[in-house]
Amino acid sequence: MSEDLKEEMKKLKEEMANLKEQLRDMTEKERERRHGIHIDIGNRVQDYVEDVMEGVAEGIHGELEKSIFIGPRGVRIIRGEEPFGEEGEPEISLPKAAEVMSALGQEHRLGVLKELMSGGKYINELQEKLSEITTSTLSSHLKVLEEAGLVVQEKVRGRYLITMPGRVAYKMARRLTKFLERRKEE
Amino acid sequence: MIWAKYKLDNTVARASEEIRLWHTEKGLVEISKNTLAVSVRLNEKRKGYVFHGQGKLLIDAIVETQEGAIGKSIEKELIEPFLLLGDTERIQKDLVETSESDFEKMGYKSRQGFVDKAEDLCERFFRGRVHSHEDFDEPHGLIFAFQNENSKFDILVASSSKLVYKATDVVFVSNENKVVLKSPGEVVVSDNGKSVVVQKGRSVLIK
């Protein structure tokens, strides 16, 4: 096992220990201090909430174990990418890919993603940044981005947030554009 | 079991207008005008209500991470009776007397039909779940029990800005900057922008 991987494993274990500690804080310590989510309607309900948190913690451990592969060549940690088999990257559904690319293929929709990269925004905040289009046009663009899974709206507050795939898509568009521009210059 | 001694009030009321039973920036529970309400009492003190009408549950079960948002909003129409335990004093002023037609509108033949259904809900919720109630005279929050399609309960526990929501396929815990989301095939734990995302066979550490 390389030193890098050993270090990676060590860090991951430390993070898990910290997060487990924080999970415990959210239940037991809050209850002890009596100013958190403590609701005194009986021990069984408190037990129920603790069981839920315990279940979540076990789920994390279980999934993390699946993510750390120990094989003849040592330890491999899969972080942020899917492991592919010998056939390489699997084929994608072209209509689905076209749908995603179509959501990206509009200047103002890319503009919305760019604005959301710095944090969640209300529609009026987006409108200020994209003043050249009307509110109804902006709403239509947001709907397309939501349907493609690139943006999600908080229904209570109404803010729009960029999703993980949304960030990946925006970065991909930016890199591809830069790459093609450089090629042209060459 | 102390909660076996609970009883439902003799009088049934209805909402004179739309009432927000709970509302924070992460979610809300509201009932519409004319929703039926019967109070749940223990030792002669009001501990909550069973409601039946048109209601709405909204929870933004979304975790913001440095690499993008994960999760979605949960939106449910509350058309089945549900239970609320906790401090309900502030909604008293919005509850008024009922007439026979109010029960008919909700599909009951009489007042007793609604009371029987509320009784059944309480029985199923309290049985084996709550055995004591120390300190409940000074409740610190709200507990909602919504019947789900499997005839079990989706539970929402809320206290100021903190909440725990547990449904069939999702667990969402939000405590200021600490958030946990467990949905099918995915677990996200986030604390002050530092997150761990665990998906099937894959984990991502975001700092």
Task: Name the features.
heterodimer; A: 186 residues; mainly alpha; Arc Repressor Mutant, subunit A; 2 domains; two-stranded antiparallel sheet; two-stranded antiparallel ribbon; 7 helices; 4 strands; 64% helix; extended; B: 207 residues; mainly beta; 13-stranded antiparallel sheet; four-stranded antiparallel sheet; 2 helices; elongated
Task: Give a summary of the structure in a few sentences.
The complex is a heterodimer of chains A (186) and B (207). Chain A has 186 residues and is mostly helical. Chain A contains 7 helices and 4 strands.
What does this structure look like?
The complex is a heterodimer of chains A (186) and B (207). Chain A is 64% helix and 8% strand. With 186 residues, chain A is mostly helical. In chain A, strand 3 (151-153) and strand 4 (160-162) form a beta hairpin. Chain B is 11% helix and 53% strand. Chain B has two helices and 17 strands. Chain B has a 13-stranded antiparallel beta sheet with strand order 9-1-4-5-8-10-11-12-13-14-15-16-17, with helices on one face. The mean pLDDT of chain B is 87. Classes of the chains: A mainly alpha (186), B mainly beta (207). Chains A and B meet through helix 1, helix 2 and helix 7 of A and strand 6, strand 7, strand 11, strand 12 and strand 13 of B.
